[in-house]
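Slide 14.
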Amino acid sequence: MFISEHYARKVWPNFEKRSALAREVVEAGYILPVRFDDTDS
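Slide 15: predicted structure.
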């Protein structure tokens, strides 16, 4: 998951993030976040 200010403001990336977090509950280690700025995920 690539996280930036622009990512945090868009609807589709937030939907993808929620889906990935739901999968993370079942499959630990599924998400590897990469931050490009100081934006909160």
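Speaker note: Residues 12 and 18 are 10 Å apart (CA to CA).
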